[in-house]
Amino acid sequence: MAEQLLLFMPGLLLGALLAGLLGTLGVVLRVREEALAAFSLAQVAVLGGMLAALAGVPQLLGAWSSAVLLALLAVWWLKPLGLSGPSQHLWILLLAWGAGLLLADNHPQARLLSSSAIEGQLLLLSWERLPAYLLLALLSAALLALLLRRWLATQLLPWRHSTPSVLLAGLRELAVVGLLAVGALSMGIFVTLALVVIPAWLVWSRAASLGSALWLSALYALLMHLLAFSLALWLDQVYSALLVVLLGVSAVALALCWQISRRAAG
Q1: Residue 114 confidence class, pLDDT cut points 50, 70, 90
Q2: Which CATH architecture has domain 2-265?
Q3: Residue 61, C-beta contacts closer than 8 angstroms, at least 6 positions apart
Q4: What pTM, to 2 d.p., does this model score?
């Protein structure tokens, strides 16, 4: 048992870190009404990872750089053209999905990479690859923390804070893209999206403040990761599927319990 735990420890550690960070990111994106951005950028990261692997470049580098280029393109070029908000993210998502599907259909290795992007590779993560994933995730989280106050202030108090400069907007995209790229390549694209969307939805109207919403979302995502990881090893099941199901079912159950308790108290 100890040997098995040591073998899967890299995935357990990285997953725990990402679960908390992605849960927090979900609340931030919900405040900014940019949750759809997670879908498009994660899909672009997967496409970049596929292209990098085919070119003999590290997947993480390809995923991050491609998503960064597209995010900066959206900030500097697409918005001036009038393509912004949900329409921008939907446009990017559809193009990235179509390009990835064509690539997988015409290259055997890309087909395998496409499948692994859906199921994730967290249980297969080695100690050798762990430092690069941890470094990018921690740097992205630190950058996001530095920009968080200004980012949220422009949304919640627009009459007191001017629109951030293009440089600040670009740095913000670097941070968001870094977290989504690490999540999509290691945990899988659907697990990444579930961790961004579901915990934030659960705590959004139930937390006492924005700060408590950030912590509760991160804590809930972390607990669900630990439970899903343990069950995946114990029952020999797919981690990504278990986590998505656990997140969805438990979130609905907790929301119903909260609603029932409110009615009983009121």
Answers
A1: confident
A2: Orthogonal Bundle (1.10)
A3: 52
A4: 0.88
